[in-house]
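Thread: Newbie trying to understand structure tokens

Hi all, I'm a second-year student working on a class project, and my supervisor (Dr. K.) asked me to get a predicted structure for one chain before our next meeting. I've only ever worked with sequences, so writing a 3D structure as a token string is new to me. If someone could post the tokens and maybe explain what I'm looking at, I'd be very grateful. Here's the chain:
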Amino acid sequence: MNPFDRARIQAINARAKLIAACGEQYPTSQQLIDVAEATLGIAIEWVSPDDYALGGADALLQRSMRTILIRDDVRQEAKAYLLAHELGHWYLDSPQPAPGTSTVSFIADPDDEADTTAATSNPSSTSAGSAVVEGYGAWERNELQANVFARELLLPRTAARALWSTGWRSRLIATHFLLPLEVVRQQLADALLLPDVPPVPAAPAHPPSDAQRLAAEAPEKFVNVVAGPGTGKTTTLVHRVAHLIASGVPANRILVMTFTNRAAQELVERLTAANVPNASQVWAGTFHSFGLELLRKHHLLFGLTSQIKIADALQQVRMMLCAVRDFFRQGGAGHDIPEAFDAEPDPYSGTLNNFSCRFWQPA
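---
Reply by user tm_fold:
Sure, no problem. This is what the structure looks like when written as tokens:
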């Protein structure tokens, strides 16, 4: 199971408790907020944006106090998303000695086409199309997982698909349920344009062989392990990391580089499934991911911006649609724009509507 599937499952379970408490199949964000404290056992405090405890953030999770602080000067949609995002940290992150803070960007104009829900770790949202974490460190990965949790808590993809099939469109859904417009658009796009792939459970943990244990618990500072295909290299790495953490090495001081994203993802999930303390704080990724991380952290040295983006499958679809539409508008293929690319007053909804009607039919 990839980390974003796990975030969605946790969000669905939390939402089920909230729905049972408020008695509505499709509650508004305000109705969810009204029952969140009593249902989830977490205090919610609305504070001034210059409150010392916030430390300049928009929201803050004080795990040891079971409290979420949220600035009180933002719109209802923003409050709902900030709360949902921090709840994502509550359910998904390993307990940390220091409180975690989040700053989420919200556009004042609800009609603005910009992303209204992107965490500062990376402005691009993460959809089911980016099941593999391309190049994020532990902090960025946690932020993106919290984003996925927040969207699924506020508007599950199943609910988005059901509302769409009955004629509801993005702006109507956002207005009626008091949700950020970009959250609605993201969930609709995920539900209608991407395949519904069932989560794959994590492989059961197996005890290490003698050779694997020898490698995992080697006391030497530098160890070169030679192993061929199918010999359990990932399993050995899992036990090595678990051994280091059990020996007192802080998880956030451990770097694991692999040849594939799948191996890195599997390693973190196995550590999480084995209840290894602070497993989510281990930096695990490919050599390419590490290079991207290096560019992001030290972008000024390379003359770049810090917001280097990796396009996931959904963003690639959007880019393709824009490129094809521009091609026809510039005189290609007889100057005729196909119906699927003919924009309505809300271009995003128009494109989504045309494509969903052509390629997706409700069961």
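A couple of things are worth pointing out once you decode it. Strands lie at 43-47, 59-62, 67-71, 100-102, 255-258, 283-286. The first helix runs from residue 3 to 22. Feel free to ask follow-ups in this thread.
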